[in-house]
Structures are given as structure tokens and as C-alpha cells.
Amino acid sequence: MKQAMSPEEIKAKKPYLDWSLSEAEYDYISQQLLGRLPNYTETGLFSAMWSEHCSYKKSKPVLRLFPNKNARVLQGPGEGAGVVDIDDGQAVVFKAESHNHPTTVEPYQGAATGIGGILRDIFSMGARPVASLDSLHFGELTDAQTKMKVTGTVRGIGDYGNCMGIPTVAGETTFDPCYQGNVLCNAMSVGLMDQKDLQKGKAAGIGNAVMYVGAKTGRDGIHGATFASADFSDENATQRSAVQVGDPFMEKLLLEACLEVITKHPDWLVGIQDMGAAGIVSSSAEMASEGHSGMELDLDLVPQREAGMSAYEIMLSESQERMLLCVNKGHEEDVKKVFDFYDLEAVTIGRITAGHQYVLHHDGEVVCDIPVSSLTDDVLEESSEEQKPARIVAAEQAPAWQPHITDVEATLRSLLQQSTVADKSSLYQQYDSQVRTNTVVGPGSDAGVIRVRGTHKGLAMTTDGNGRFVYLSPKVGGQIALVEAVCNIIASGAEPLAITDCLNYGDPNDPEIFWELHQSVQGMAEACRVFDTPVISGNVSLYNENNGQAIHPTPMVGMVGLVKNLDHVIPSFVQQPGDRVYLVGQTGDDYAGSELQKMLQGEISGTLADFDLEPVRDYLHRLLKLMQAGKVASAHDLSEGGLGVALSETLFKTDLGMDLDLRHLTADQFFSETPGRLVVTVPAEFAADFESTMGGDAAMVGTVTNSHWLQARLANAEINQNVSELQQLWEEALPCQLKSKD
Amino acid sequence: MKIAVIVFPGSNCDIDIYEALHTVCGADVDYVFHKQESLAGYDAVMLPGGFSYGDYLRAGAIARFAPVMGAVVEMARAGKPVFGTCNGFQILTEAGLLPGSLKRNDSQQFVCKTVPLEVVSNRTLFTSQYQEHERIALPIAHADGSYYADRETLDRLEAHHQVVFRYAEENPNGSLRNIAGICNERGNVLGMMPHPERAVEEILGSTDGLRLFKSLLANGSVKVEE
Amino acid sequence: MTKVRIFVTYKPSVFDPQGDTIKKTIHNLGHDEVKDVQVGKFFDVTVEGTGDQVDATVKEIADQLLVNFNMETYTYQVMEEHQ
Amino acid sequence: MTKVRIFVTYKPSVFDPQGDTIKKTIHNLGHDEVKDVQVGKFFDVTVEGTGDQVDATVKEIADQLLVNFNMETYTYQVMEEHQ
Ligand SMILES: Nc1ncnc2c1ncn2[C@@H]1O[C@H](COP(=O)(O)OP(=O)(O)O)[C@@H](O)[C@H]1O
Ligand SMILES: [Mg+2]
């Protein structure tokens, strides 16, 4: 296949600018790295590999702030997924990935292939995916387009995960106008493995085979990586070419075949990696780089679905359900037999070579001959300008907003119907949350809990992020994202292990946005250190903008915790009449960015108060000890809507009520969103123990009752609400808003 | 008694049935791959849930042609216990071992939740340990679970006590006459949309499905006469 | 070589929730002039041979695989035929 | 009143996992004479009005709802037309 342009024409016409490679980068490549002009194929490879999505050239300096080690971390960032020791020779493997742009353009396939991609990351490490989570952020449910995006996205996640037979056990769904033109779809997968099966994406050993397995390569998703790294406008939306179709059935077979090779035939395999963004080029170059090897591939051998694909198209295609293996010389046929059994293709497309060159043959020509490291390691890191946003400077001068609630009951009822607060079961019911019969706690609780079959251990998992807080005060907002995840994990009775993240932001070339990124990562990193939850994997999604309007900075935290004894999994709803109700943590006047403010003002404003992480950690650890000792009946953390909403949620789906003395709180404070708080119920017999351990960090506020009423006295108001009625409002809100008028 | 759990490409509840029978009930169970043509030596066969062949075309439509299906049909004809849940039920109808079909849910959405059921008949190998008209609750997880058959077929099913499970409160998928599970006339082939294998351990929230497997094991290698 | 388009629909007596939902959505989008929507699938099948041979193949694959006669029916139409 | 049949298919460059799986099954059933299978959906839509009016409606509902232009294309054909 002829090159579409000569090197000289490329230099003159600069097509790479459309592929998001800058002129400075192009010059650096030709003058410093190659000492000649790159040809068309090479230019394409550089533009994909040097995109933000593959190279993290802008975000790297910021990502270095994250801690990523502790005694349990077996594999930190840099591989398909991070790996954490969970004792007994076992490990948990997890990672999150964003698929925001594809989901915005084509919700169903975008979300589906998002799940497909993250699952491949997990099984490429040698782990079997055991659970998925999804963090979704949409615009307000006011227009038909957004409703269709919600239904399409949820259906896409469901169809892919359900078909794979991997339960989706938790997630989050929020709604805010800032996501109207740019949906966030972050998917997280959690896998389980024996530590001895740990794999790396490595290619080494001169003469060893590079094998391509799985689906054929087509022209779909070409330039997906650069597409994901460039911002959006309605103009782009009509070009719409970078969408791939997922085939979960194929992926299920691929998963089984790969795990069979990895776990049963470790002597055949040198390394394995999935083909994600930038397809063959990124997987092969990264594997060669990791193994300090050279590599030579013959593109004519790549299984192709369409005739006449150019080298450039073959290398950059993002066709789904494909993996790359490095196989010890002599075992190519053995590997092929395993894939044959699953009716999958497995083809040797190249070899490991001496030296460090990356050489591609196509149609009898050498179409690429460059050092491996020029693609993977020599990327020009970009320093970015940053500037504190004017809105934050202004907000710091302005007086804090106070709600002045007069009708606390009506406020509670309205809050329960806000789309972000309302029951999400109509969405997550579309996910199989129980397949493989390990789900101890499914969606609808603080964290999902999966048992580790054959042991008495479990894994708790959650995703959390609140763009509103980060928008108002990026650093505190970053801390809160982590604290909320910790609270959700601890509320289920688990010990936080580590996190993955998706950093979703606008255009980093805007100094204010880069500042938000930098500050919020600092906040997260600080909190990670305090809670000893290192960042073991993650993903950056920049350029989340629509027609120049950026989303709220929305870092998503995906956390996994270890349940040491499944007998002590803590439910999020009340258990027994007579149990004591405690409010753990202090409540302040924290309304900036709250659901209450959004509801009453129509927009958010203000700045967040700084808070001390260490005291929160200390009382949460004491609470966890009490849980592990079997002294806590239920726990639920406070998030959107504050205490009022949390109390209601602990009563839903039970036939119990509460009688509470909250005279130390005002009606306003009933909905304040001070972070780090939980509602905990404790059997009366353990009340004394609980109080002596928790001291001033927990306040006894009442008891669980037999009547299905939420009754509370506040400093300046009273609440007397039938729980069934509250539950109905909460349950019906979302389906009603989603259903188009008919 | 030796039981085969069939693994089709795309099956994903195979392990759930296997574990329910093997780990929870202590039964003698094997996975049998779809390419195997014989089921010699097995006394019962289980078709698990999942998405065989991606459920492309229609749920269960392609699995019916798998090499192992000839042997499954033989087992059914021989009066040995044949059980299908979810995708297994869909395959049994596509293979003609049970009447009717499973259509897309009325909501057109996949639905995963626990629903109340009535045990309509305990006169099968699989339900003998339940009370007739007993209320139980089992998880469902499907997009194509709306049972459809023409009126005569439905009347015949009722007349011959072939309706084994019915949705007891809400009907989650639009299935006719609230049918959740049916058996053949001889009572040795049972298909149902709910997943009893997901309700066999307290830690998973319910044990309402356990007696289905216990019934099967208690009835041992019973062969139902024609 | 013959290219045949095989249309599969629910029998008229079988309720099709999909068509119904799409109609409602179309109305919500403001197109009240749309009075009815029915949904079906089609298979474009390229078969070696022509005429009766092709008819026989179409009938067999429809009977065996493509159509579930409990609830579906089909029709087909030859789109292209080359000797 | 006009009855229109709208055909929606994947764009040629998009992989159709369904068609592929069905083709394999047809081959397994012994019909090697079947060379290609592609799957599509069709919508039989009854629209008030005739001619250009109907064309406009079809175009709009296809654009907004029935067709996903990222990966699909459509054609349509008037089946019946009544004044
Ligand atoms: N997209 C989703 N997928 C799965 N579960 C979800 C999703 N959205 C919400 N949920 C579930 O709904 C419940 C409420 O979510 P959320 O309000 O975010 O909880 P929290 O405030 O405790 O983090 C949680 O159990 C969560 O797992
Ligand atoms: Mg929570």
C-alpha cells in the first residue's frame, strides 16, 4: 500500500495538525529523534502515541503527586491495572477508565465498549474480572436528548457486562447542566487472581513471537485516541467516525482463552497486553519498551476485516476484542490450539528482534523503522500554565450562603426527588448484579461487596466523585472525593486498600482548568497519604468540553476495601427496633455546592471550608474496629442531601422508623453536607462500648422504632414523616423524570 | 447421581449451577462443553443461564444447534431430568423440548431483581420439596423473559399441570398468564426464567432456590415413565 | 449469485412492545403525523446459484434458523441476481 | 396516508457481530452456498400526508431517532400511498 503522502508533502501540508500533533512536536521528532522526516505511517503512529490519551504528556507532572506504594501494593500504575495483596497468596486487581467522548457521541456503543476495554485491562494482568462499577454524570433530565443518552448509556453498560457474566455491583449517577453536552462515563473493573499468575505487558527474548488474538481489524475507531484527547464541538459530532461496535460474546471467549493460557501454561507466555487506545501500535510498542526489545511486525499477517487497509489504518484501528501476546518461540502452535478451541483467531504477526528498533512491513515495503522509545518514552512533556480561576477569587471574598429553611419537611421531600439523590434502582436493575453468585451486597448500598469464593474474605468497592465541590474548591473537593469513598467502604465494614481514579477535566491549555486539575490532585494525594490508600491505576480524560464550555472538574475515585470476615459486612439500613442511632462526625454549616443549594438557588456558589483529615481518619478507624468486633448493626454515610436524606435512606425498604433528638442541629444543618459523617445504629447492649470508643466523635441521637415514621426534633423545627410516603417520592422521581411525556 | 452442566460459548451462569449443586449440595457434577456429542454416564443435565452465542438472532436460537444438543434431546426423551434456567429455558423452547417462546420483556429492558413467585406445581422432579401454592422469592436477570404461546398451548399447559412457577405479584416482563416456569407433559424437563441457583446460601440473601436442587437430588436417578 | 432480503416480523397476533415504544418516542419528538410504527428485522443473504435453488436455500435457513414460527413470520424478496 | 419502510443497516466499515455469527451457524447447518449474511432492522411507518411532507418526516425521525449515523445508514421505500 502506497503512503498517502510523501515525507516532504507531510512537512509542507502538515496533516498531523489535524491529528493533534503540534508543529513543535513534529520538528522535534524529525530533527532530534529520527534525524530525518517521518513518513506518513510513522507520522500517524507518533500522533497517536503522543496524544494525551496515550502519553499523558500534560498530566504526568501532576500524576507524580499521587502516592502509589504501600506494603500491600504489588503493582502500581503503568501496567494494564494495579494489583494489591489480599493475603493467602491472592490479589485484587483493579482499574477505572473513562469513555466520555465515545459515550457522548454514541451512548450505547460508547458505554458498552468502555466496559469491554476495562475488562481487557483486568484479564491481561492474569485476573478474572469479578465485578464492575460505573460512574455516570449526565446533564439535567429536561430534554429528550439527555434522556436518550441516559437510557442508551445504561443499556450499553448492561448489555456488555451482562453478556460477559460479570456483575455490576455499584456505581453512581449524577445530573448537572455542566454535563449536558459532554457526558461522563467512567467504568471500573475489579478482578481477582492468584499472585503467582501475575502478568506484565512485556515483550522480550530475541526470536519470540508476537501473536495477535481475537477479533479482526477493521477501519473502526481510527484515531480514537486522538479523538478522545481533543475537545468537542457540534461540528465534530457530525463527522462521527471514531465509534466502535462491541461484541461481548467475542470478549467472553477471549477472556476464557487468555486466562487459560495465563493460568495453565505460564511457560508459553512472556507477556500479554490488551489493544486499547491506538490499537496495535500502542500495545506492541509499549510491550517492546517494557521488555527493552526491538520488534518487527508484518502487517500483512494481521487478520483484517476489510480489504485495502493502509498500514496506518491497521496500526491505529481501535477495533475491539483484541489482545497482543508475546509467546516463547516454539509455543505458537500450542497457543493457537487454545484459541482454536474457542473459535478465535491467533496469528503470529512478528518477532522480537535484537536492538531497539520498531520495524513494520506492509505490502513488501518497510513502512516504519524507528526506535521503540521514540514512541513510548521520548514524548515531550508539556509544562502548563496555571492560574487560580477568577470565580474562586471572587467567591472567597463573598459572604457564605445560608439557606434559612422554613419548612423542613417540604424541603426533605423535595430533596428526595432531586435526580441526583433519588433512587437509582430503575437504572441499576438493568445490570446483572448477581451473576456468578458472589454478590453479598449489590447496588443500592454504600459499597458493593463480593465474596472471595472459598474464603471468608470479601471485597468492598465504590466509586465517588462530586464535581460541584471540586468546582468550588478544587483542593478540598479532591480531599472530599477520597473521604467519601473511604466512608462508603468503611460503612460496609471493610478496610480501605487502595484506589484507582479517572480524572475528568476540561481543556488543560486553559490555565484555570489546569489549576483545577493540579489543586484537586493535590487534595486527593494528600488524603490518599492520610488514609494510606495509594493510587494503583487510573486514567486521565481531558478536553471534556462542549462548545467551549468545560464540565465541572470531576475526579472520580474508585476504591476497593477488604472485608476480613464476611460475618461482619454491615448493611446500610436499620436492623432492629430499640437499636441506638448515632451521628458520627461533626456537622457544620456546609452548604456550598450542596444538593440543597442547587435545589434552592438553581446554581452552586461559595467555597468549601478546609477540614482536618487526621481526626476523620482516627474516628473512622475506631468505627471500623467496632464493626469488626460485631458491635455495629448498620451504617450509612452522609452525602448529597446530608443527614435528612441519609436518615430516610436507612429506613427505606425496612418497616422500621426512628425517633430522634437533634436539638443540637438547625433545620438548615439537617441538610448540610459536611464530609466524613455517617449514621450508625448500634444494638443497645453495645451502646456503652460504642460510646466509650467513639467519645466525642459520635453523638447518640435517638432510637430505631417499630413504627414506620421518621420523627425528629431539631433546634427550630420538627419532623414527622411517614417513611412509606418518603420512599415513594424517592422511588418514583427518576423513572418519572426519565419517561418522556406520554 | 451424576449431573452434567452444559457450557455453551457465552454461558455465564454455568459456574453458579455447578457451585449450587457441587459445593452447596455436595452433588457429583461435571462441566460438559458444547462440542461434546455424548452425555453417556450422566443422569441429569442442566442448561445454565447466560448469552449463548451472544444471543444473536434470538436468545437460544443458535445454541440449539450445538453438537451436545442431540444428547440433551435424547436425555429428555428418555425421561431423565433436564433443567434449563434463563438462557437454558430459552434454549429448551428453541429446541422444541418445551412449548412456546420467550420474547423481549415488555419494558424492553434487562431486569435484575428478586421477585415473588408461586410454586404452582410440586408434581415435578424439581419441585417435590416445595408446597403447592407456596410463595417463594427468586432472582430474575433477563431481557428476553416474556413467555409467549398461543391460547391453545397455554390452555393445554394449564390442563396438564405444566405451569410450575408463576410471578406472584407484579409481572416483570409481560409473560402470558404470569408464567415464570413450565415443564413438559412428562414432568422431566423444566424451564424457568428465575435463577434458583442464585438463592442457595444465606450470605447471598436467600435460600429459596435450594429445595429445587435438593428435590432433584432426592429424586435421584428417577426416570419418568411416558 | 443471488442477493435475497428476508424480512422477519412478529405475527400480527403477537404484541410488539418495541414498535409501540418507538411510536411514543416519535410523538414526544413532536411528530404526531406518524400514526403507526412496526418493527422488524431483515437479513441480506448472498446465495450461490439462482432461481429455485436459491428459493430452496432461503426456505431451509428460514425454517431452521432465522424464524421462530411460534411468534414470527417471514417474507423475502430477490434484490439482485447474477448468472 | 403513506406507508413507508425504512431500512437501517450498519455502515460497511462497521463490524456486525450478529451477521457473522449467523453466517457461521448457517455454514454449520451445511449451507455452504450462503456466502454472506448481513442483518438490519426495518420500520414500517404510517405517516399522514403524502409526497414531500412524508419525505420530510421520514428524514427527521430517521435523523433524530431511528438511525445512528456514527455507524448506521438508512434507505427507505414508499410501500403504499393514499390521497
Ligand atoms: N450507575 C450506577 N450503577 C450501579 N449502581 C449505582 C449507579 N448509580 C447509583 N448506584 C447505586 O445507588 C446507590 C446510591 O448511590 P449514591 O447516592 O452515589 O451513593 P453514595 O452517596 O453512598 O455514594 C449506591 O448503592 C450505588 O452503588
Ligand atoms: Mg454512601
TrEMBL record, chain A:
Record-linked SUPFAM superfamilies: PurM C-terminal domain-like (SSF56042), PurM N-terminal domain-like (SSF55326)
Molecular functions (GO terms): ATP binding; magnesium ion binding; phosphoribosylformylglycinamidine synthase activity
All residue ranges annotated as the PurM-like N-terminal domain in the record: 78-193, 444-563
Pathway membership: Purine metabolism; IMP biosynthesis via de novo pathway; 5-amino-1-(5-phospho-D-ribosyl)imidazole from N(2)-formyl-N(1)-(5-phospho-D-ribosyl)glycinamide: step 1/2
Residues given in the record as Mg(2+) 1 binding sites: 97, 539
Binding site for substrate: 98-101, 120, 244, 318-320, 541
Superkingdom in the source lineage: Bacteria
CC per GO annotation: cytoplasm
Domain PurM-like C-terminal: 206-361, 576-708
Residues given in the record as ATP binding sites: 56, 95, 501, 538
Leading EC class: ligase
Functional note: Part of the phosphoribosylformylglycinamidine synthase complex involved in the purines biosynthetic pathway. Catalyzes the ATP-dependent conversion of formylglycinamide ribonucleotide (FGAR) and glutamine to yield formylglycinamidine ribonucleotide (FGAM) and glutamate. The FGAM synthase complex is composed of three subunits. PurQ produces an ammonia molecule by converting glutamine to glutamate. PurL transfers the ammonia molecule to FGAR to form FGAM in an ATP-dependent manner.
Subunit structure and binding partners: Monomer. Part of the FGAM synthase complex composed of 1 PurL, 1 PurQ and 2 PurS subunits.
Family: Belongs to the FGAMS family.
Protein name: Phosphoribosylformylglycinamidine synthase subunit PurL
Organism (species): Limosilactobacillus antri DSM 16041
Gene field: purL
From TrEMBL, chain B:
BP GO annotations: 'de novo' IMP biosynthetic process
PROSITE patterns reported in the protein's UniProt record: GATASE_COBBQ, GATASE_TYPE_1
The protein's Enzyme Commission number: 6.3.5.3, 3.5.1.2
Function field: Part of the phosphoribosylformylglycinamidine synthase complex involved in the purines biosynthetic pathway. Catalyzes the ATP-dependent conversion of formylglycinamide ribonucleotide (FGAR) and glutamine to yield formylglycinamidine ribonucleotide (FGAM) and glutamate. The FGAM synthase complex is composed of three subunits. PurQ produces an ammonia molecule by converting glutamine to glutamate. PurL transfers the ammonia molecule to FGAR to form FGAM in an ATP-dependent manner.
NCBIfam families in the cross-refs: FGAM_synth_I, PRK03619.1
UniProt xrefs under PANTHER family: PHOSPHORIBOSYLFORMYLGLYCINAMIDINE SYNTHASE SUBUNIT PURQ
Protein name per its UniProtKB record: Phosphoribosylformylglycinamidine synthase subunit PurQ
Gene: purQ
Automatic annotation (TrEMBL), chains C, D:
GO cellular component: cytoplasm
Top EC class, one word: ligase
Subcellular location: Cytoplasm
GO annotation, biological process: 'de novo' IMP biosynthetic process
The EC number(s) this enzyme carries: 6.3.5.3
Organism superkingdom: Bacteria
SUPFAM superfamilies reported in the protein's UniProt record: PurS-like
Family stated for the protein in its record: Belongs to the PurS family.
Entry protein name: Phosphoribosylformylglycinamidine synthase subunit PurS
Source organism of this protein record: Limosilactobacillus antri DSM 16041
